[in-house]
């Protein structure tokens, strides 16, 4: 049975996905974009259990792949990231962090996500330019961390 809380989280995730595809996909800095779905999954992994968060990661990664025509890249990289970092994120969520720690945590998670994403895209030969690859790895991770930190401030910390 689906609870009201789960429906609310699905609707928030779909809103983040829509904002990602419609707005943030076009707000690129040197070919790199922020990943709102990743930020939402990191927040969700601090609130939910591992299995439920993995299901959300696979679902939203699949939808993001379908909307951006990158079949499997977002699904695998987001699911892999949540699988690896969920225990750590659920343990550290009990602590109250200051702003730079939140920034570094999101930066670290985004960098791992982008490393897996770029590795898979190199294997599938989707991106060929090394400049674009470094842009996704470095600038995309920093951009995601800045947006995630800003959302944390707006949310009320």
Give a brief outline of the structure:
It is built from six helices and no strands. It is mostly helical and 157 residues long.
What does this entry look like structurally?
The protein is mainly alpha-helical. Helix 1 (4-24) packs parallel to helix 3 (50-68), helix 2 (36-47) runs antiparallel to helix 3 and helix 4 runs antiparallel to helix 5 (99-123). It has six helices and no strands. The protein has a single domain, classed as Arp2/3 complex 21 kDa subunit ARPC3, CATH 1.10.1760.
Task: Note the topology.
Elements: H1 4-24, H2 36-47, H3 50-68, H4 73-92, H5 99-123, H6 130-155
Helix pairs in contact: 1-2, 1-3, 2-3, 2-4, 3-4, 4-5, 5-6
Count of domains? 1
Spatial gap, N to C terminus: 31 Å
Briefly note the CATH topology name: Arp2/3 complex 21 kDa subunit ARPC3
CATH class: Mainly Alpha
The outline comes out as globular
| SS content category | mainly alpha
Proportion in β-strands: under 5%
Unreliable runs:
none
Query: How would you spell out the order of helices and strands?
Result: HHHHHH
Largest sheet: none
What is the architecture at the second tier of CATH? Orthogonal Bundle
| Structure annotation, total helices | 6
In helices, the fraction of residues equals: over 70%
- Number of E-type strands: 0
Radius of gyration: 15 Å
Mean pLDDT across the residues is 88
């Amino acid at each position: 049975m689906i609870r009201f809380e789960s429906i609310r989280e699905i609707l928030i995730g779909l809103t983040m996905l829509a904002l990602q595809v419609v707005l943030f996909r076009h707000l690129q800095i040197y070919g790199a974009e922020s990943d709102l779905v990743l930020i939402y999954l990191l927040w969700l992994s601090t609130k939910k259990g591992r299995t439920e968060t993995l299901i959300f990661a696979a679902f939203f990664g699949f939808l993001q792949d379908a909307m951006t025509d990158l079949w499997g890249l977002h699904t695998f990289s987001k699911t892999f990231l949540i699988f690896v970092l969920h225990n750590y994120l659920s343990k550290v969520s009990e602590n109250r962090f200051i702003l730079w720690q939140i920034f570094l945590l999101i930066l670290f998670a985004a960098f791992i996500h982008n490393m897996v994403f770029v590795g898979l895209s190199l294997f599938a030969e989707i991106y060929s330019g090394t400049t674009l690859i470094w842009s996704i790895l470095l600038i995309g991770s920093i951009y995601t961390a800045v947006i995630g930190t800003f959302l944390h401030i707006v949310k009320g910390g």
